[in-house]
Amino acid sequence: QVQLVESGGGFMQAGGSLNLACSASGNTFGTLSVAWFRQGPGKEREFVAARRYNGGTTYYQDSVKGRFFISRAINITYLQMTNVKPEDTAVYYCAAGNPILSAIRTSRAYRFWGQGTQVTVSS
Fold this sequence. Notes:
7-stranded mixed beta sheet; 11 strands; 4-stranded antiparallel beta sheet
């Protein structure tokens, strides 16, 4: 089993930066791809970013390209958020699993999930 715990959420003004972290435990985490999803108020959960285990290729939702950056260091996955906007307000979840390439942006392709951390951006 893999356990994921997010941290780093908070309240901030538009244009600022924030770093989220996802700490993982479990001896199989090193062989899993990782991703961040988010769910805003009244919205469905949506893909934000992913990093494949095999090769480390990264993928991003179009609205965050050039502003958010996913990285990984052993058992911690990071989401660096820059130039944040009010529409980035959401609960952010990290996920881990072995999605095929065509499903890298699909939440149901990930087996393990954290509990989420709230990010609120004011205008």
